[in-house]
Amino acid sequence: MTKDKAVVTIPDVVAHRGYSGQYPENTMISYEKAIENNASALEGDIRMTKDGEIIMMHDMTLNRTTTGTGNIGQVNWHGYIDGLVTKTDPPQPIPRFKDVVQLMLRRDVIDKNMYMIVDIKFDNPIAILNAVHDLLKAEFADHMKTLARQLVIGIWHVDFLKTTQDLFPDFKICFIGLSLDAARKYFFDAADLLSMPFAALADKEGHEFIQEAHARGKRVATWTVNDVEQMHECLAMGVDAVVGDHVQVMVKHLRETLEGLSVDEYADYITKSTYLSHRRTRVYFYLLKKAMHYASRGYIGM
């Protein structure tokens, strides 16, 4: 007799800035290694340079991660950023967004049904959305249907929402934020994916948020998860995607561990999640969640 296979929704393994736990963040090697190590999806940040190029970069400045300095919006790609490399070994050039789009159109990536969350921080000018739209239309016009399945437009602020909807009507939208209240108020109807920090989802309110989102047909992602016990808790919470730096660890504990489990084995595995049963851990995440809530109001205004 064969055992019943568990009806389990295995969460997507989303490579945070690529395989950033092993390679320089937001670089081609980081994205390529994430694909090679069977991530479900990529995540990366974009910024616009003075001369209008869109590059892969988390920070507003070049100082932390590259051999250059200066605010990205005040320096040129051509003749400056194009000659820089990462501080983290192995030194890598700074890629443009169109390089990553080309990677997403590679046949093996398409065949794996991979997608990418394009993280557009709230401190970008809204005009970056127009620049992304114009780039895709100009250089990838023949692939727009494919890219609409592959690229998820990630925004932090409601001020970006209408422009995103107008420019990318066929693309999925992801709200990335710190506050569950902001997610409910502004994005529960508009966004396809709600990406929230682990601390925001770790309590009873967070669990109810996941259930409510699922009832509305929305998917929920959480970040940045690098601890194995937190990965186990993500499974217990029932999130749809987990964003983290260490792709191989995530694949092992979020996917391979569950493959082939029976219904009873899966239920037993989930009930053994005790990470949040410790009072000190719960208090830590409670305080962190409150801090993020007020930070969201202070810095983003919502």
Please describe the topology of this protein.
Blueprint: E1 12-16, H1 28-36, E2 41-48, E3 54-56, H2 97-104, H3 107-111, E4 115-120, H4 127-139, H5 144-150, E5 151-155, H6 161-167, E6 172-176, H7 180-187, E7 193-197, H8 198-201, H9 204-215, E8 219-223, H10 228-237, E9 241-244, H11 247-256, H12 263-271, H13 279-300
Parallel strand pairs: 1-2, 1-9, 2-4, 4-5, 5-6, 6-7, 7-8, 8-9
Antiparallel strand pairs: 2-3
Helix pairs in contact: 10-11
User: How many strands, which pairing sense, and closed or not: the largest β-sheet?
Assistant: 8 strands, parallel, barrel
Please indicate the percent range of residues in DSSP E strands (runs of 2 or more).
15-25%
Please state the average pLDDT score: 94
Helix share, percent: 40-55%
Strand arrangement, major sheet: 1-2-4-5-6-7-8-9
C-alpha Rg, in Å? 19 Å
Low-confidence segments, given as residue ranges, are 1-6
Shape, per Cα inertia axes: globular
Judged by helices, strands and strand pairing, the structural class is alpha/beta
The arrangement of helices and strands along the chain is: EHEEHHEHHEHEHEHHEHEHHH
**How many extended strands?**
9
Count the DSSP helices: 13
State the end-to-end CA separation. 55 Å
Can you characterise this structure?
This protein is an alpha/beta fold and 302 residues long. Helix content is 41%, strand content 15%. The protein has an eight-stranded parallel beta barrel, surrounded by seven helices. Helix 10 packs across helix 11.
